[in-house]
Design a protein that fits this description.
113 residues; mainly alpha; 0% strand
Length: 113
């Protein structure tokens, strides 16, 4: 029980000393954007009654990852945060490229018809 009380005091002390810096604002904005993509995905899946990953999901992923990477590289210098956000950024950019190629291919096919 002493351990839990000590941890609770530590958490409350950290919250009391919380300081909102510009880099923390970047990190928090990135976190909000990265998390909001799941609400977008849920909305479209419910609306269309099938699993959907809309284009906005990937844009929110790229922007959220870029902001979080910026925070972890420049604001915090945290290697764990950098590694945990680099791969999702890479996958999101890849999916955007695939989507743009598909749209271009469809437009080309439609213009030939």
């Amino acid at each position: 029980m002493d351990f839990l009380q000590h941890e609770l005091v530590h958490i409350l002390e950290s919250l009391r000393r919380f300081e909102l810096t510009p880099w923390k604002m970047v990190g928090l904005l990135g976190s909000v954007m990265f998390t909001s993509r799941w609400f977008v995905q849920l909305y479209f899946t419910r609306k269309l009654k099938r699993v959907v990953m809309p284009l906005s999901f990937w844009w929110l992923s790229v922007i959220g990852s870029a902001l979080l990477l910026s925070y972890f590289i420049f604001g915090k210098n945290d290697s764990v945060g950098i590694l945990s956000n680099f791969f999702p950024a890479f996958v999101s950019v890849y999916n955007l490229i695939v989507h743009m190629r598909e749209v271009k291919r469809r437009d080309l096919v439609e213009s030939e018809v």
